[in-house]
Design a protein that fits this description.
alpha+beta, BirA Bifunctional Protein, domain 2, YbaK protein, Rossmann fold, nine-stranded mixed beta sheet, five-stranded mixed beta sheet, binds adenosine-5'-triphosphate, binds magnesium ion
């Protein structure tokens, strides 16, 4: 590819909208362009990398006996009604009507469509297992699209579905995908960790997320070095604080002016935050979006609330709960912003964290401005509608498996795999007959990779970028080699550059020839920004048959003869281009 004849535009300035390195670099290197909030177009170099990631995924899926198909992004609402998700999916789903008023959506995922496709064809145990996958754009009207392709509203996903006879078969399919995903992310140059995850809206039992480790990620994971516990923070079980053997002391109402936070009240009263009760207040909505009640959640003062656990405990959708308006909830339930305790609340659901009943003599809000109550005890002074674990497993807390201190890390969820069981096959009637002509629902699994999110996450890995730009791993680089010609008009340089270009091309190496009439400084900057793994510079030495060879990831440069340079480039490209570690 000759750059002088290509559509290629880099930016010197950091675009305003971009906050994290990968997003800044994708825009600056001209790999993507924003069309609207959360909606991007891929430019030629960016699209090449997307296709390389897709090909790695394709090879690994095919190797596990999965077959590629393609389904429409337009999905009929009727299928989603069969599974019950037409109403359950919530506001992230892009819904639309056809000219006759029939409901459709732009697929956010495709469990229903795949189940529908196979349900009339697969009727016998002899046809199982079956594994199908596709690449397609998925649409989710995210509440907060951000960080470019990390959380966009239109993104590329590889989704895979397995159909098995029984749980044992599913276990095998799941294991296969777990291995395939590990291979994919290794080959793409990610440092990642598979962690146990919550099933969320997809449903089913058992799930893992593959998290690419980087400080800018939106996911938080908890892990333990002493054992192999690793899980998303949403899913992490907690060890409750040891029950206290203190005597219950008499209640005491105390004046605590302007102590609206746990920190302030603990300071004011001279008690540890572990001796306080923190209230978090919510309003919930029904399926039509109308307010249908209030919830007060109580955790120990120094803890953090885990929203996923709270939502699961309440048995509601994540999108049907939000923080309550202080005044409105005060009128309805008697809460007082900053001074809410469980005593004095009415007309709201009370959810208490599992360790609270074991704790003694806590300080809680008095439901009265500037007052708290000391020595509040569960059971004696108040009760709850639900008592269950609703707290985050914090860094340093005991590991729920082995008790060693837990560690936290941030990352990007690049893929997730789920055991679905019969959640879709049962309501949608995907049934097979066994050896004895008995009917059974097909046992399913589903497996997703965010292709466009992976594309960006690769860049966020610390080893894959520096202050000058991207450093692509060979396996996903848009091109393997860039030939930078210092003076494209110089006959000797032109000749050498063409020779290198042609010979590398013949050897199957993907080459860019930077033959633009730009200053060398501009060309070097662009080559670094774009992150092409090997740079061959053709300059003054060309007349003597000498070129300069440099890897993007190393600072060193080497002067080599033209033939040596070509041989060296071919060697490294062949060694690294499929990303496998031999
Ligand atoms: P998240 O928790 O980040 O919203 P999710 O758990 O809802 O993601 P899945 O339904 O598991 O996502 O989708 C499979 C994969 O698709 C995810 O692992 C992720 O890599 C990718 N993905 C999901 N939502 C987005 C998005 N808005 N933009 C880009 N990629 C996404
Ligand atoms: Mg997920």
């Amino acid at each position: 590819m000759k750059l002088s004849q290509s559509y290629f535009k880099t930016l010197r300035e950091v675009p305003n909208e971009a906050e994290i390195p990968s997003h800044i670099l994708l825009l600056r290197a001209g790999l993507i362009k924003k069309t609207a909030a959360g909606i991007y177009s891929y430019m030629p170099m960016g699209w090449r990398t997307i296709r390389k990631i897709e090909n790695i995924i394709r090879e690994e899926m095919d190797a596990k006996g999965s077959q590629e198909i393609n389904t429409s992004v337009l999905q009929p609402g009727e299928l989603w009604e069969e599974s019950g998700r037409w109403s359950d999916y919530g506001p992230e789903m892009w819904r639309l009507n056809d000219r006759n008023g029939r409901g459709f959506c732009l697929g956010p995922t495709a469990e229903e469509v795949f189940t529908d496709i196979i349900r009339n064809d697969i009727t016998s145990y002899r046809q199982l297992p079956l594994r199908l996958y596709q690449f397609s754009n998925k649409f989710r009207d995210e509440a907060r699209p951000r960080f470019g392709m990390m959380r966009s509203r239109d993104f590329i996903m590889k989704d895979n579905y397995s159909f098995d006879k029984d749980e044992e078969g599913l276990e095998q399919s799941y294991q296969n995908m777990y291995e395939a995903y590990s291979n994919v992310f290794t080959r793409c140059g990610l440092t990642y960790r598979p962690v146990e995850a919550d099933n969320g809206a997809i449903g089913g039992s058992g799930s893992h997320e593959f998290t690419a480790l980087c400080e800018y990620g939106e996911s938080e994971i908890c892990y333990c070095d002493a054992c192999d516990m690793a899980t998303t923070i949403e899913k992490a079980a907690c060890v409750d604080a040891k029950a206290s053997d203190e005597e219950m002391l008499p209640l005491e109402k105390v004046h605590t002016p302007e102590t609206k936070t746990i920190e302030a009240v603990a300071d004011y009263l001279g008690v540890d935050q572990t001796k306080t009760l923190k209230a978090l207040l919510f309003v919930t909505y029904d399926i039509e979006g109308k307010e249908d009640g209030y919830v007060a959640a109580f955790i120990r003062g120094d803890r953090e609330l885990n929203m996923t656990k709270l939502v699961n405990a309440l048995g509601i959708h994540p999108f049907s709960i939000e923080f309550a308006d202080e005044e409105k909830m005060g009128e309805a339930c008697g809460s007082v912003g900053g001074f809410t305790g469980p005593m004095g609340l009415h007309d709201c659901k009370i959810v208490v964290d599992s360790e609270i009943p074991g704790l003694r003599n806590l300080v809680a809000g008095a439901c009265e401005t500037d007052y708290h109550i000391k020595n509040v005890n569960y059971g004696r002074d108040y009760e709850a509608d639900i008592v269950t674990d609703i707290k985050n497993l914090m860094e340093g807390d005991p590991c729920p498996i082995c008790g060693a201190p837990v560690k936290h890390a941030r990352g990007v969820e690049v893929g997730q795999i789920f055991k679905l069981g019969t959640k879709y096959s049962e309501p949608m009637g995907a049934i097979y007959k066994d050896e004895n002509q008995q009917d059974h629902p097909i046992v399913m699994g589903c497996y997703g990779i965010g292709v466009s999110r992976t594309f960006q996450a690769i860049i966020d890995m610390p080893e894959n970028h520096d202050e000058n730009g991207i450093i692509w791993p060979m396996s996903v680089a848009p091109y393997h080699v860039i030939i930078t010609v210092m003076k494209p008009d110089d006959e000797a340089q032109k000749e050498v550059a063409e020779k290198v270009y042609n010979e590398l091309g013949k050897a199957g190496v993907e080459v860019i020839l930077d033959d633009r009439k730009e200053r060398p400084g501009v060309k070097f900057k662009d080559a670094d920004l774009l992150g092409i793994p090997v740079r061959i510079t053709v300059g003054r030495g060309a007349a003597d048959g000498i070129i300069e060879y440099k890897l993007r990831r190393d600072a060193d440069k080497e002067e080599l003869t033209v033939d040596e340079g070509i041989a060296k480039a071919i060697e490294i490209v062949n060694a690294e281009k499929d990303g496998r570690i031999y």
